[in-house]
Amino acid sequence: MSLVTMTDMLQKAEKENYAVGSFSVLNMEMIIGTIKAAEEMRAPIILQVAEGRLNYAPLSLIGPMMLQAARMACVPVAVHLDHGLTVPTIKYALDIGFTSVMFDGSKVSLQENIETTKKVIAFAHQYGATAEAEIGKVGGSEDGSDDLELMATSVEDAKRFYEETGIDALAIAIGNAHGVYKSAPQLQFRRLEKLHAVVGAPLVLHGGSGITVEDFRKCIDLGIRKINVMTAALNHITNAMKKLAEHKPKFSYFDYSQCAVDAVYENTKHHIQAFRSENKV
Q1: Given 16, 37, 217, 270, which is the most exposed site by the fewest CB atoms within 10 A?
Q2: Is 255 annotated in the active site?
């Protein structure tokens, strides 16, 4: 139990046909609510923070908190740096104990993405950690600052990328997007099926907020083993705060804190059920 590597977690998910939820956290309340739901539902989870969010949650502060929560949990928890953009940040995450790191090379050429990913894999494996990469462009951006046009992952490029890097987990673009979807996502299931056939590593779906339970499960049946969730949690917290203010205008900090925990807890439970990872410990 407790702090584990993402590789073992995703391999088990592959064998048993479910996906592990990778839940972004920015503060103590989000960590507490996520762990509480995972323990209650006996589900393996990943706690993650993206490099683009570190202005709000410095890695030197949020990282040790995530790690300690994982060590104390009674379910398997991997701790992951999501969308690592710079090698120094990735190295720092490994130095403090993260069991998984991602290099996001989606904005550079395929060749540069391959070359940098291979370097990240090499030193991640020195720490016994898992390495994730991304190929294609998932719409939107992790920090909400960009509105990138989606570029679906090429099956041929993905095959080359996997063969040349041996990456542990690969995030792909099939119509999914970060942040709030402007319209209902039209996921390319046939493309996903082809990607699963040529990539020997577990596949990752970013931009999980806004996808239906039915589509989540279809993705899982076609090879998705890790699904990222953040926007849905933030929206749950925001909506819960609004309701709290309406019903209790003079609410205290402690009311706020418990409200945030409860909102994340409910959101995490919903996604664990959608991903079929309940009772997989």
Answers
A1: 16
A2: no
The pair of structure tokens assigned to 231 is 């926007």
Q: Cα separation of 229 and 25, whole Å? A: 10
**33/260 Cα distance (integer angstroms):** 8
pLDDT of residue 145 exceeding 50, the answer is: no
Q: List residues bridging with 48 in a β-sheet.
A: 24, 80
pTM of the entire predicted model: 0.91
Please give the helix or strand (H or E) that residue 20 lies within, else none.
strand 20-24
Which amino acid, residue 184? A
Residue 187 CA, chain-centre distance (Å), reads 18
The span from the CA of 226 to the CA of 14, in Å, is 10
- The residues with which 228 forms a beta bridge, in sequence order, are 22
Q: Cα(39)–Cα(278) distance, rounded to whole angstroms?
A: 10
Name the residue among 129, 277, 113, 272 with its Cα closest to residue 208. 272
Written as six digits, the tokens of 89 are 């940040």
Which pLDDT tens digit goes with each residue over 81-127? Answer: 999 999 999 999 999 999 999 999 988 999 999 999 999 999 999 99
Handedness of CA 148, 232, 56, 277 (dihedral sign): negative
Helical pair 87-96 and 110-126, crossing angle rounded to 10 deg: 20
Catalytic residue selected from 8, 82, 143, 147 = 82
Supply the angle between the helices 28-41 and 253-274 in degrees, to the nearest 10.
40
What whole-number distance in Å separates Cα of residue 32 and Cα of residue 37?
A: 9
**Rounded Cα gap, residues 47 and 235, in angstroms:** 18
The domain 2-274 having CATH identifier 3.30.1360.70: the answer here is: no
Rounded-to-10 torsion of CA 153, 200, 224, 280? -160
